[in-house]
Amino acid sequence: MALLALGLVTAPTEYRRWAPCEVSIRQGTRHVAGDTQIVVAPDGLTDWVYAAMTTKANHHGSQTNMKLALSIGYSGASLDIPLDAIQLADRLGYDSVWTAEAYGSDAITPLAWIAAQTKRIRLGTGIMQLAGRAPAMAAMQAQTVDALAGGNRVIAGLGVSGPQIVEGWYGQPWGRPYWRLRDYIQIMRKVNHRQEPVSHDGPEYQLPYTGEGTLGLGKPLMSILHTNPDLPIWLGSGSESTVKLTAELCDGWIPMHFVPGRMESYRPWIEEGFRRAKANKGWHNFEIMGRGPVVITDDVASELAKVKPSIALYAGGMGHREVNFHNEHMKQRGYPDVAERVQELYLAGRKKEAVEAIPDEYVDEAGLYGSPQRIKQRWQAWADSGITTFSVGSTRPEVLELMAQIVLK
Questions:
Q1: 84 falls within a domain
Q2: Rounded mean pLDDT, 51-58
């Protein structure tokens, strides 16, 4: 596999996700050995260079092996799985389809239905809420669907949700999400690996449980089902501590409100997570999925306006005034004044004004809107953003086909 090495001072930031290697070579020379090629920047004798696999990145740093995914979310008042769109994505070469859950339909059950009527597409939960099931049950459900699907198709995407759902719907304390996540993932790994009966003594979960109300009869158990030890676990996260945890313990990451340009702020957290991992963890075996709506239209402004009420709901009214992750991410994306104004208006009942306070550019940069040509032009920013998968937020066949033509050609 060919490697292209660029001098540190001249390397585009998109390349810097690859591991550095130290070289000593004369200024301005090129060394070719087999299928490995090193190009040293003009200012380097013994310099640090950043290697980028040319089979993964072109000269712009974009991912030439970018994967596509389809997000179908959770149900509304009635359960309607867009099977035609999912089967089309399967035929077009999309890598994965993702369900979700809030406080209605669950994320796992629809995947069993989808698995029975598709051939190869991977099946992801984006996300399973931790409070909705014990870690052993999350592993059991994921492994059961994976076995039904023929193996190596399920991705267990996890997340904590928010305090309103955790405490209001599931009746559990918000507690310490970081430690709950760490315990949860570690227990799932133990179930999946099936190396010995599962025991765990963590700050949030203990197996066997010996706390108040127990009979003291619990014992470590091993899954009866012979599990897939490589079943991937991904995490939906956004804070510094949980992004580091994701890179340390998980196989993939579903970043909240990711847009092109944000990877540089996340990069140090991810690389710290890699350093903490005991296994061989790095950019080469870590997946990152960005998500966004894709709308073919001749009236971009009108389509942007349709999205704003949902943004106002989440950034303005989803969660408590002091604990609203969506509002925090609006600030982190460079819109602190907008975030404060939207929340202030929404919580005051002035929802229409909250919607009007959201600028078009905030919506536009988080998706792909416009003619096929405009979508293709704006796709380049996503291709250069550092993600490995883009999840298409549309089930329209013309959109799925267009994105396949642009990305998977």
A1: yes
A2: 36
Q: pLDDT tens digit string along 21-40?
A: 333 333 333 333 333 333 33
- pTM of the entire predicted model: 0.83
Same domain, 218 and 288: yes
pLDDT in tens, 114-149: 999 999 999 999 999 999 999 999 999 999 999 999
CB 390 within 8 A of CB 291: yes
pLDDT mean over 188-204: 98
Task: For residue 353, give its domain range.
Answer: 298-368
How many domains does the structure of the chain reveal?
Answer: 3
What one-character-per-residue DSSP string does 145-181 give?
A: HHHHTTSS-EEEEEE---HHHHHHTS------HHHHH
Chosen domain end from 13, 30, 53? 53
Is 61 part of a structural domain of the chain? no
Amino acid code (one letter) for 290: G
What's 76's DSSP letter? -
Distance from the Cα of residue 82 to its chain's centroid: 22
Report the interhelical angle of 177-193 vs 135-148 (nearest 10°): 40
58-70 pLDDT, tens digit each: 333 445 589 999 9
Angle at which helix 372-383 crosses helix 397-407, to 10 degrees, equals 50
- Would residue 58 count as lying in a domain? no
The Cα–Cα gap between 211 and 38 comes to 59
Query: Amino acid identity of 143?
Result: Q
Phi first, then psi: give them for residue 98, nearest 5 degrees: -125, 130
